[in-house]
Write a structure and sequence with these properties.
230 residues; alpha/beta; Rossmann fold; Arc Repressor Mutant, subunit A; 8 helices; transcription cis-regulatory region binding; Sig_transdc_resp-reg_receiver
């Protein structure tokens, strides 16, 4: 894992094990968040973009497999490293089939844990670069044709997705109505049509309403620009 994408979510209910993991990972240069319950894992896992999520199978409220399945259903693509004392073949197979990307049996060597995290992080970065466009907390998956904000799926119609994708691909640039009509609708500019304003309004409501900050900005008299603050 390189650059700023070294944040890991550790889901572990045992205070001693959790403390050791957080200390060792922090010393190794990772930014670490901790969740002690399944509910905390669901909340934190959907709120941030993690390079890897490590998760215990046996949690006090919701079991780890259910947590993984729910986060996957919510569109979370971060790789999962299952860390569990349940080490039988059937246990490992069930965990991997439920959405886990790797499985480490307790007790384990921390050196091996680091090696597995690095491998999962590299795989995650490669996939993300190839298939997912990101602006701030917005993620646009080009394979599934789905968009997510803070991990929550945005319900978009096909043309709305095309419009958002074009804005994202032109992050930070001002895009005119004529450009949108040509590239999204494959039509020449018609000054009498309001189709662009209607669709941008729909997409803006779906993407920006009830969010911490807006991404889609109107540039008066010119067009639109999608950008994150900062």
């Amino acid at each position: 894992m390189t650059g700023g994408h070294r944040r890991i979510l550790v889901v572990e209910d045992d205070p001693e094990t959790a403390g050791q993991l957080v200390e060792e990972l922090t010393t190794s240069g990772y930014d670490v968040d901790l969740a002690a319950t399944g509910r905390e894992a669901l909340s934190q896992g959907a709120a941030r973009d993690y390079a890897v999520i490590t998760i215990d199978r046996m949690l006090p409220d919701i079991d780890g497999i259910t947590v993984m399945r729910q986060l996957r259903d919510d569109g979370i693509a971060s790789p999962f490293l299952i860390i569990s004392a349940l080490g039988e073949v059937d246990d490992r197979v069930r965990g991997l089939r439920a959405g886990g990307d790797d499985y480490l049996v307790k007790p384990f060597s921390f050196v091996e844990l680091l090696a597995r995290l690095e491998a999962l992080g590299r795989r995650s970065e490669t996939v993300a670069k190839e298939t997912v466009l990101r602006v701030g907390d917005l993620a646009v998956d080009l394979i599934t044709r789905a968009a997510f904000r803070r991990g929550r799926k945005i319900p978009l119609l096909p043309r709305e997705f095309q419009l958002l994708e074009y804005l994202v691909r032109n992050e930070g640039r001002v895009v005119s109505r004529a450009m949108l009509l040509q590239h999204v609708w494959d039509l020449h500019f018609d000054p009498s049509t309001n189709i662009i304003d209607v669709y941008v309004g729909r997409v803006r409501r779906k993407v920006d309403d009830a969010q911490a900050y807006p991404l889609i900005h109107t540039i008066r008299g010119i067009g639109y620009c999608l950008r994150a603050p900062g």
